[in-house]
C-alpha cells in the first residue's frame, strides 16, 4: 500500500498534498489529494472524503473548492480521490465526457468490458480508506463523506449503503435519482447492464427507502441557476420525496442565482465543513 508524494504546498498552517499509489481494485495508478491540517502534526484527526463530479480529477477540489481554511480551523483531514481509473486502454473509455474516463459513477461495474477496472465503489469505500488509514494520522472511527454532482451521488450512496461507516454526509447539486436521468441511465446501462433492478443498488432515492441505521443528518445545497436542474439530470425533489416517505431527515437548500460550478461550492463550503465537524467531533 505504498504511496508516493506527487506535490506538497503549505496552506493555512497545514499541507495540501497529492499522492499516487497502485490501486488493486482499479488495476492502475491513482492520484488522490490530502489536506493535512496543522493538528495532524501532533495527533490523529477525523477524516472527510470528497467525491468529485464528471470530468474531474483530484485537482479540481484541491485548487478550487476553498475547503482548506475551514479544514484547518476544525482539524479535519480531507481526502479527494480521482473520479475514475486512468489509462486502462479500454475501447470507448475516451469517447465521451459522461462515461468512461472521468466518469466512474462510483459503482462496481458488472459488464465484462468494464468490470476489471471500473470498481470505484469498492475503491472509495474499501481500498482508499485502507491506504489512508495506514499512511496518515487519521482517526478511522471518525469519518464522513461529501461530494458534488456525480460525486454527490457517490457520497449519498456510500453513506446509505454503509450505515454507521460515515458519521455524516452532504452534497452539492447531487445526481439524486440516476436511474431516472440521462447521465445515470447512460452510465448504469454501460457499467451495470440492462437489468434495471440492479441499478437501484446505486441510486440514493431508492436506497433511502430501505435505509436502516443510525439517525442521519443530510445536507444538500442546490443552485437555482444550475442548468442541469431543469434538464432533469439532478432531480433533488425525488430524493426529498423518498426521504419524506421513509421519515429520513434531509435539508435541501435552494440557493438563488448559483450555478453548477466550483464558484457555487466555494461559496458554501464552510457550511459543509461545519456540518461534518459537528458530527466528527461528537
Automatic annotation (TrEMBL):
Main location: cytoplasm
Database matches in SUPFAM superfamilies: alpha/beta-Hydrolases
Localization per Swiss-Prot or TrEMBL: Cytoplasm
GO cellular component labels: cytoplasm
Family that this chain belongs to: Belongs to the esterase D family.
Keywords assigned by UniProt, alphabetized: Cytoplasm, Hydrolase, Serine esterase
Pfam families with a match to the protein in the record: Esterase
Signal sequence bounds: none
Function: Serine hydrolase involved in the detoxification of formaldehyde.
A molecular function GO annotation: carboxylic ester hydrolase activity
Catalytic reactions of this protein: S-formylglutathione + H2O = formate + glutathione + H(+)
GO BP annotations, alphabetical order: formaldehyde catabolic process
The EC number(s) this enzyme carries: 3.1.2.12
Active site feature: 149, 226, 260
Keyword DNA repair (UniProt): no
Name of protein: S-formylglutathione hydrolase
Record-linked Gene3D superfamilies: alpha/beta hydrolase
